[in-house]
Amino acid sequence: MSEEQVRPTGRRRAAPAQPGRRRIDPAIVAAVVLPLLVALAVAAVRVGAPQPPATAPTAEARTSATLVCPSAGVLAGTDEPDAVVPESGVVRLGTGAEGDGSVTASPLDTPAAAEDLEDAADVTPAAGGTGQVDSGAAVVLRGAGAAAPGLAAARFDASGGIGTTCRTPDVGGWFVGLGAGGERSSVLELTNPDPGSAVARLSLYDESGPVDAPEVRSVVVGTGETRRLDLAELVPTLGDLAVHVDVTRGRLGIAALQTMQPLDGSRGGTTWAPLVAEPTTATTILGLPGAATTARTLLVANPGDAQTRVDVDLLGPSGPVRPTSLADGLVVAPGAVASLDLTDVLGEALAEGGGGASGVRVTAGSAVVASLRSGSGAGETSSVTTAEVPTDVASGALTGLLPEGAGARRLVLDSLAPGEVAVPVVARSAAGDVLLEQDVALGAGSAATLDLPEGTARVDVAPTDPRVDVRAALVTGSGSRASVLALVPTITTDLVPTARRAWQ
């Protein structure tokens, strides 16, 4: 029997590879080709190639401006400070030059009144004169066209004796010397003039250091809303407080009204605290209301993490002077508030007459916030901390507004120029009539005081050289109804950021 060939059944095996033929594995291809492609792409990009230089902001003529004036006389110590409607008050305003421009006013009479921003009244004053808004509520002023560059305003209570300068809404600021107790309390007022919510974070400091205040770590202010925060209710504290308002979203009008209510039941009073833009190593504080015997206290906050020494010079017609009694200066602990009694040293200077003192200059080893308090009880008020005029966006001119019936009116000038300068001063009535026109001579680093005529409603200070650093303040009223107001610079230019392409 012949032998049969048996064929394999089931799963086949791969045939042996033929000599000279190799199969290419796709994984090997990917492992070799992809890194090569990436390397070529990286080589095509100019790694480390020089980038185009940063483009400076473009200077454009200012055609719009916004100011926020706080409400008048909102009392502290209430259960619902947001719901308090203040007593009557006035806002005085002025513009810079003649031309096609307008000013509108929006009183924010109710909390969260976004519709009030749309309900704006035309309050454009005559060129060189002043206009007035009769409202005790927070007021938003908007200047357009030729009225924008020189827009200035001030808030006064019904008596006209207590006032404060209206400010451009900002992203932060500092107060030092606020109270949060029974005898001295403070209401912090935040106003949002823009569409959309704004958010602020508050940091507080006292004589011992930072104050834990979770209630004010995040304060939301809606469109057209005015939030009032009674510090005595939120963070009751004895002694003097420094408060930093940091606006983390949007921008806000920021103000603080202090109420002094003596524990013996005698008549109390109110005053606005001066807002300081930022800590600095050199601070000029102008305006000394009251008499030679008036109590004076310097308050300094040190937001840094190391102690710092503060020195104090008196400002007068002969330039800065440091009395021997102030030779030791003041040492301020980190994150704390300290005070220095200047009653005697300023009293002696004021008693000399002839403008013996017009303010103080504070210099520190690190950036601090400083304020000067004058008087006590119902007669307490604060001097103003002046700021350098930004010469890149301003003309160098300064403007101040006064109410009717303000009593005594004094202009305080201080020059930081190295040599003598002549500063033109013009005082006008509410109708724009010139009441006084005079050049005030200021020596190197000196200060001077000028009495203003009765009926003065507006003061313009215009250094002939805009690069000369001149500071100015107005002292109004007398006794327990006195105020110190800062003159504001005429901002003529807006710096607009210039966009550039990310890839060149």
UniProtKB/TrEMBL annotation:
Pfam families: DUF5719. Residues 1-20 are annotated as: Disordered. InterPro entries: DUF5719. It comes from the Bacteria. This is Uncharacterized protein. It comes from Nocardioides zeae.
